[in-house]
Amino acid sequence: GAGVSQSPSNKVTEKGKDVELRCDPISGHTALYWYRQSLGQGLEFLIYFQGNSAPDKSGLPSDRFSAERTGGSVSTLTIQRTQQEDSAVYLCASSLRLGQVTNEQFFGPGTRLTVL
Amino acid sequence: DAKTTQPTSMDCAEGRAANLPCNHSTISGNEYVYWYRQIHSQGPQYIIHGLKNNETNEMASLIITEDRKSSTLILPHATLRDTAVYYCIVRAHNAGNMLTFGGGTRLMVKP
After folding, report:
1. Are A4 and A94 in contact (CB under 8 A)?
2. How confident is the model at residue A43 (pLDDT cuts 50, 70, 90)?
3. Whether B43 and A59 lie within 8 Å, measured CB to CB
4. Which chain A residues are within 8 Å of B45, Cβ to Cβ?
5. What is the mean predicted confidence (pLDDT) over A74-94?
6. Which residue of A has its CA nearest to B97?
């Protein structure tokens, strides 16, 4: 079946501009996560959504970052007034439900954001 | 989550078994061992996980020592497409769903 998809695959923007990154999770997956990965670094958790519960925003680095998930499916990560340090690959993942023992997360291909 | 230690890099000949070690000496009784990998320019991919018994699936085998302080991921017949960074993670079932990756092991499969 279809995996997690993300768009755009690459985004180049100028410092100070706003950007929106989109994630389409696997159909039926109730949990959705956003991470970012800077060049050569590990994964940095940003935010996750589980069903209709309030999202866990504990990983968002500043108030310039926000995310929403409409209808329990598609999610958009918005970065306002982008800075050069925001340059990274933004990864989205989904999983079937919170607390499942297997706890597999299926990742999308990522969006490579470059802030000039 | 318990800390893990992995070698920075390893080489393996194509067709041979790749054995990737991971030390997790501070693992707690309720923490599982998970392995993910990340091929260049792709998102991370789940491989396998286990609690205390050895596990095998279509991708790999996971061998966990009896004291659970270390484990080995085995790719039985490595191919060039297995070249990736392999991440060992230990985490509790109820730890919250976010993943935290350390440096991992960069496996290079050579012809």
Report:
1. yes
2. confident
3. no
4. 107
5. 96
6. A98
